């Protein structure tokens, strides 16, 4: 048979199978699978999301200690689960007017976790791959038979069989995912009812998605999407949601203030100058608006001007750890490292010793303040933070700086290896680990950890 015809057949089969692979890979966000999710760490927002999730996790029977909520630096309104982690975009928090909207999103994602949807999804992927593989083999067999007989139509039919199998596998998988999304929606309503919360926020989210679809003006094929259409999801839930005695229940004023503060903080750090003022123009004297103004002021080049704004907030709420944390960040930008040490230290004490990101900030300020006493204290604070949050690259970076300034080269190189390892820079991690191994006696705890990093290879 002519090579050109075989090339055409191979190209069509490859195109179909590659398309299927992309579809299968797309069952979770691509950046989550690749490990390149742009993560945001913030003690205040992490604590808020944990409080949103705690009652939902409890009634769903999902252990809080085994579930992490991760903030993603993306502006779209989105959330997803991967492993035992719930990922929530910063854009979802900014766009959500009330805590209840984010609580509804969390309840939906917990529905996936409690329902074991990821495990069953893997089974469906295996099934889809089997269907695609079998039909591809059948298609190739038919094409070969057609080629040997000189029947050009049979060659084309064989390629069609393979491509049709890939399409069937993809559609089957997407149909399964839509079913599981509806199941997670229903579970979310149940969790919200059992915790005495409204499911109105879920309906609000579906309305938002529907508006976005309408504005985009796109025609959607309902059989080629992984989630049901927003209108379909709303219709499926509206009746049972409105039957709940909690449907018209609103969030507490205190929780709304915390939610607005989180929005203000995200706007200040991620949305540029003027974003806070624009969002809170109707209530510029609110706590959230002034908090956002303080952060925006120091981030945009005027840290000294931000100090009196944050000091006024501290005067109103002296035991709020996050205002003291913000003051520490402002003073660091103003090159007042010792003042930042005092503010971060106060924040850590008020947080009750369970805010490792604050301790990392305190350790950083201590390193910048300098002096042997501050450096040794920095090591202690950072070691505690690492015990609570062992995968934080910034903690190891600051630890390396502290050890380096004290002349402890081996410990500095090991901490640098850890920082690179937890940041996913494995070649750099192995290089520093190899250097660290030469600084310690073979078999010592530091040598063993350096050896672990040096030997690490990503699974193929």
Chain-wise SSE layout:
Elements: H1 3-25, H2 30-34, E1 39-40, H3 43-60, E2 68-72, E3 79-82, E4 85-89, H4 90-95, H5 99-114, H6 117-149, H7 152-194, H8 200-216, H9 230-243, H10 253-270, H11 275-279, H12 287-299, H13 303-316, H14 321-333, H15 337-350, H16 356-369, H17 372-388, H18 393-405, H19 409-422, H20 426-437, H21 445-455
Parallel strand pairs: 2-4
Antiparallel strand pairs: 1-2, 3-4
GO molecular function: metal ion binding; metalloendopeptidase activity
Cofactor: Zn(2+)
Organism: Oceaniradius stylonematis
What's the short story on this structure?
Residues 1-32 form the signal peptide. By secondary structure, the protein is mainly α.
């Amino acid at each position: 048979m002519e090579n050109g015809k075989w090339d055409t057949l191979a190209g069509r089969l490859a195109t179909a199978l590659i398309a299927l692979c992309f579809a299968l890979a797309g069952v979770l966000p691509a950046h989550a699978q690749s490990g390149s999710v742009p993560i945001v760490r913030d003690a205040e927002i992490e604590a808020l999301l944990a409080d949103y999730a705690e009652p939902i996790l409890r009634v769903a029977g999902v252990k809080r200690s085994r579930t992490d909520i991760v903030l993603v630096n993306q502006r779209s309104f989105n959330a997803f689960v991967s492993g035992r982690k719930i990922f929530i975009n910063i854009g979802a928090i900014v766009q959500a007017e009330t805590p209840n909207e984010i609580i509804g999103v969390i309840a939906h994602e917990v529905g996936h976790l409690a329902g074991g949807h990821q495990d069953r999804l893997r089974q469906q992927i295996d099934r889809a791959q089997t269907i695609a593989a079998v039909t591809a083999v059948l298609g190739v067999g038919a094409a070969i038979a057609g080629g040997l007989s000189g029947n050009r139509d049979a060659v084309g039919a064989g390629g069609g069989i393979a491509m049709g199998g890939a399409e069937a596998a993809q559609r089957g998988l997407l149909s399964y995912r839509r079913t599981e999304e509806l199941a997670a929606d229903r579970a979310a309503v149940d969790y919200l009812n059992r915790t005495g919360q409204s499911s109105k926020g879920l309906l609000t989210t579906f309305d938002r998605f529907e508006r976005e679809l309408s504005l985009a003006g796109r025609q959607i094929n309902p059989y080629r999407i992984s989630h049901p259409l927003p209108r379909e999801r709303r219709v499926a839930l509206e009746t049972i949601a409105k039957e709940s005695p909690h449907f018209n229940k609103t969030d507490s004023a205190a929780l709304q203030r915390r939610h607005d503060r989180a929005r203000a903080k995200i706007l200040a750090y991620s949305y540029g100058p003027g974003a806070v003022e624009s969002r809170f123009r109707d209530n510029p004297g609110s706590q959230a608006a002034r908090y956002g103004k303080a952060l925006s002021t120091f981030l945009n080049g005027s840290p000294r001007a931000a100090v009196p704004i944050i000091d006024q907030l501290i005067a109103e709420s002296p035991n709020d750890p996050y205002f003291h944390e913000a003051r520490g960040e402002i003073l660091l930008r103003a090159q007042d490292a010792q003042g930042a040490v005092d503010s971060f230290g106060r924040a850590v004490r008020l947080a009750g010793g369970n805010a490792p990101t604050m301790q990392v900030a305190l350790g950083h300020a201590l390193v910048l303040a300098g002096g042997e006493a501050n450096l040794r204290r920095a090591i202690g604070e950072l070691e505690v933070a690492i015990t609570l949050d062992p995968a934080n690259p910034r903690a190891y970076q600051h630890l390396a700086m502290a050890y380096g300034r004290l002349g402890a080269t081996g410990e500095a190189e090991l901490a640098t290896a850890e920082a690179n390892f937890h940041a996913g820079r494995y070649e750099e991690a192995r290089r520093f680990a190899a250097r660290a191994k030469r600084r310690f006696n073979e078999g010592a705890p530091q040598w063993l950890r350096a050896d672990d990093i040096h030997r690490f290879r990503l699974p193929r």
